[in-house]
Write a structure and sequence with these properties.
Elements (H helix, E strand, L loop, with lengths): L1 H38 L5 H25 L7 H5 L5 H33 L10 H5 L1 H20 L13
Keywords: Cell inner membrane, Cell membrane, Membrane, Transmembrane, Transmembrane helix, Transport
Family: Belongs to the TRAP transporter small permease family.
Subcellular location: Cell inner membrane
């Protein structure tokens, strides 16, 4: 299982970098849009489109990263009402349920991506293939599937260490 965790760590590093770089690029492009509009009095329509697509890349790569680090918001009110001895079982059920949902979203994202790919549609202002913009969705969902399945496998491994979850 240590090989899977190492691969997950490398993938997580890539996810983190893609999210950070796309976020920084989005901020820079947005500042450029504001400067062009209010300082130079010119429209920068391509910038608005680029910022929108960078936000998509940032959001989906960040979502996949959060699956690895357990950074997504979770509702624990129900599980906290039950005895502490039930918590490991509830966690296993939650991870299995999450894996099933993410697998379903992955297949739906692949179907949507195939439609974009077959349409050969281009974006309006920048003329970038729409498939290039939305390929991040099935990729991030595939990575999320890997992370959630790793969690499920770790749940059923004997003598496993509890992953650190964000509680803030």
């Amino acid at each position: 299982m240590s090989v899977v965790k190492k691969i997950g760590k490398v993938i997580g590093g890539v996810e983190e970098w893609v999210a950070m770089i796309s976020f920084i690029a989005m901020v820079v492009v947005t500042i450029a849009i504001v400067l062009c509009r209010y300082v130079f009095k010119i429209e920068f329509m391509q910038g608005e489109e680029i910022a929108r697509y960078l936000m998509i890349w940032c959001g989906y790569s960040g979502a996949a990263y959060c699956f690895r680090t357990h950074g997504h918001v979770g509702v624990v009110v129900f599980s906290e009402m039950l005895p502490a001895s039930w918590h490991p079982c509830i966690k296993k059920i939650r991870n299995i349920f999450t894996a099933v949902i993410v697998i379903g979203v992955f297949f739906f994202a692949c179907m949507c991506f195939n439609k974009y790919l077959s349409s050969a549609q281009l974006t309006t202002a920048t003329r970038i293939p729409i498939a290039f913009i939305f390929i991040v969705i099935p990729i991030s969902m595939a990575l999320s599937v890997i992370h959630t399945i790793t969690d499920v496998i770790c749940d059923f491994m004997p003598n496993r260490k509890e992953p650190k979850e964000v509680t803030e």
